[in-house]
Write a structure and sequence with these properties.
Radius of gyration: 22 Å
Oligomer: single chain
Helix content: over 70%
Largest sheet: none
Shape: globular
Order of helices and strands: HHHHHHHH
Distance between the termini: 61 Å
Structural class: mainly alpha
Length: 208
């Protein structure tokens, strides 16, 4: 155990062990995020018997967890390769290149899980261009510093929220085929299924 502890705390092995722990954290986070989501979606919108629904929950959770583990592993590996090739120094472009390569290798296949993950990332990238509330502390301006996120300026966020909802409602009504299937199902449940009922039971208790 002492020999193992020495390896774990030796700086020379840090970067390689960080890749291992990154894979572990990616897998665990994927399970935590996808499992409850898959359970809820299977209950609300799932079709077929419970055996097929449980199989869908397992497959979606496994794919999400493994994909995140793979991406973190590749991202950290590509960062390490670039850093070593540049004499131990990290350039500002290294993160973009590592993310680009990892994203292509892991998330380029179009399937339901990958599409949801990529759209989640895209929404965060787009919203990052909103002006922030307050200013980033001058002590955090150095490259690679672990600065904390700042929330969007409330004035710009108000406009952003209104435009987003206006756009998605227009798309749902007039170009529904362009909306991501999971969101389309949710919007159908909210806005179209609420237009029809046969009796008090289907008005207030059951959707159909």
């Amino acid at each position: 155990m002492e020999a193992l502890q020495q390896i774990l705390t030796t700086p020379a092995y840090h970067d390689y062990l960080a890749i291992l722990k990154g894979a572990r954290n990616g897998f665990v986070y994927g399970v935590k995020v996808r499992f409850p989501h898959a359970v809820v979606m299977s209950i609300l919108f799932g079709r077929g018997d419970w055996q097929s629904r449980l199989w869908h929950i397992y497959r979606a959770t496994k794919q999400h967890a493994l994909n995140l583990a793979k991406f973190v592993t590749l991202y950290k590996t590509f960062l390490l390769i670039q850093r070593k090739a540049n004499g131990g120094k990290e350039r500002s472009s290294d993160t973009f290149i590592a993310g680009l390569l990892g994203g292509y290798m892991v998330f380029s296949e179009r399937n339901a899980v990958n599409e949801q993950i990529v759209l989640y990332v895209v929404s965060r990238v787009v919203s990052s261009f909103l002006p922030r509330a307050g200013r980033r502390p001058s002590s955090d301006l150095s490259a690679g510093s672990a600065n904390k996120p700042l929330p969007p300026d409330s004035r710009y966020f108000t406009v952003f929220a209104a435009l987003s909802w206006g756009a998605v409602m227009w798309l749902f009504q007039h170009r529904g085929e362009t909306i991501q299937p999971g969101m389309f199902n949710s919007m159908t449940y909210l806005y179209r299924d609420s237009e029809t009922w046969n009796n008090l039971r289907t008005l207030l208790w059951h959707n159909t």
